[in-house]
């Protein structure tokens, strides 16, 4: 199914110690037929990249899989992200029709498998359809969680300590340049936000100094 893929931070060093998420790549899978309603088959899958001499290649079985359930809270996952502390984050578009049922952001520990509960779940009345999540850091410590919402064309910003049902600290919208059916988000080293738009097939940059956050 449709979704997103990302490599854990840290690159690919010559040695691949067990459990080092810098050696892994993951993908969010919306499920059979790529339809948002197929949440019962949606999942997060991760593969070990192997060593520099034996890179990831071919038709391989995932090293671990985190599937849809009321416990995992995985529900039509669009966005997958790994922070520098090796924690996995998932942006769930959510439809309310799957066993998890809901738009949310979840954080899980490394090498998550099966149907165990996430470390934290963030829900908000502001969410229409989260499709991407990015966790910024300062001095190696998570400080802000950025959630891109495809339905509302907005970016919701939460503190790193956010958990449960909470309101965003900041809401970022933009008409020039426009967020228009946005699907992906990343921050550069200056704190500027880059987003990819599906509707008008463009990439926009929201400069931190100009947008006032």
Please, could you describe this protein's structure?
- The protein is an all-beta fold and 213 residues long.
- It is 2% helix and 39% strand.
- The chain is built from one helix and 16 strands.
- It has one helix spanning 208-211; strands at residues 5-7, 24-29, 43-48, 64-67, 77-82, 88-92, 104-108, 120-123, 130-138, 141-149, 154-159, 164-165, 170-172, 182-187, 193-197, 202-206.
- A five-stranded mixed beta sheet has the order 5-6-7-8-12, with no helix packed on it.
- The protein starts with a strand and ends with a helix.
Notable characteristics:
mainly beta; 5-stranded mixed β-sheet; 16 strands; globular
Distance between the termini: 35 Å
Q: Please describe the biggest sheet, giving its number of strands, its sense, and whether it closes into a barrel.
A: 5 strands, mixed
Helical region count? 1
- Approximately how much helix is present in the residues? under 10%
Low confidence ranges: 7-22, 32-38
Query: SSE order, as H and E?
Result: EEEEEEEEEEEEEEEEH
* Mean pLDDT rating: 73
Radius of gyration: 17 Å
The tally of beta strands, per DSSP, is 16
Physical arrangement of strands within the biggest beta sheet: 5-6-7-8-12
Strand content: 35-45%
**Global structural class:** mainly beta
> How does the overall form come out from the CA principal axes?
globular
Task: Characterize this entry briefly.
With 213 residues, this protein is mainly β. The protein is 2% helix and 39% strand.
